[in-house]
Amino acid sequence: MIDLKSFSPEWLAEKRKKYNRDPGLMENMIYALYLLEQLKLSGLDFIFKGGTSLVLMLNEPQRFSVDIDIIVRHDMIKEELEFHLEKIVGASNFTGMRIDERRSYKQGIPKAHYAFSFQSNVPAKTQKGEVLAQPQKEILLDVLFAENHYPVIVERPVQTEWLVVYGDNVMVKTPDICSIAGDKLTAFAPNTTGVPFHREGINNKGEAIKSEMFMEIIKQAFDVGCLFDLIAILETFKKSYRATAEGEIKYRPERGIKSVDDVLNDTIQTALIVARNTAQVSAEDRVVYGYFTKGIQQFGHYVYTANFRIEQAQVAIAKAAYLASIVLTDAADFEKFDDKKPIAEYMIVHPDYNFLNKQLKFVAKGEALFYWNRTLALIGV
């Protein structure tokens, strides 16, 4: 179980010394994992998914993630869910819970959104410049009411280097690596099932607002890039992708998505914009490329140690395009980059795409170019 020492200023200082990152961000992730453990201890039956689940899945997680995504039974009613959530507030370090009424329990959208508040040990400034020694902060919980669509479910301990633990591990259900990779790829399709470039909403004053989601899109691509090298069973990945995409299409009728193939082509065409770098062919694509460069700059704050620049994004996004082409063509196997292979073997000859040679041949020793070569070969270019 998670020891409350995990929230102490001393523990946060130790982690800050190692990673030189924002202690507030570290604390948020620790509290997110604490919320996960409390959900399990409340007796709620759920599957843990989303970006934070990778902190438990990967031997070497590489980015911070600060919210919790779960799936519960499709027929679970609000009162049953909140029975478990209210237990958490009464038996943990969380000081309160609120529901996002505007986004929860809406007709045709089987989702609910909650926030759990806690007293932070990381000082923060108010808008007036006042310093709060222990400000109130929140961890978000996103709930999907649905039947399990993942081909493979495993149990994992709530244990990571970010936590001080004692006694027996608390175990939670998650998709396996191949299943979560399929899920994650559907989120990198901003014009169809994925995180959109902008999200419309209403603020506390009742005013319509449009939020930029550029960094969230980059997070999805980054996660796909990390998972790519761990995919062992391609059929599990493809099955998970199609099941997730079909569910998202059903939940989003307003987007007018006609088929899973539309989603796959969205991923490939969006990835191509990033691959072009500054050599965009239209004003619209230049705007979209600007979204990505802004998202990449913002996202660097969330990476544990390494720098994250356009070159790293191009590799991750090339992997996403390659995986999309695998699902699109139902390919039976796939290749992984080997830097010992001469770059001449995967230069692109098609006149409509050979510009990628110039843009990518020096990116990560040709890795991004390799995956684009394989992508174009699969889709028949």
TrEMBL record:
InterPro entries: AbiEii (IPR014942)
Alphabetically ordered keywords of this record: Transferase
Pfam family, one: AbiEii
Protein's recorded name: Nucleotidyltransferase AbiEii toxin of type IV toxin-antitoxin system
One term of GO molecular function: transferase activity
Gene3D superfamilies in the cross-refs: JHP933, nucleotidyltransferase-like core domain
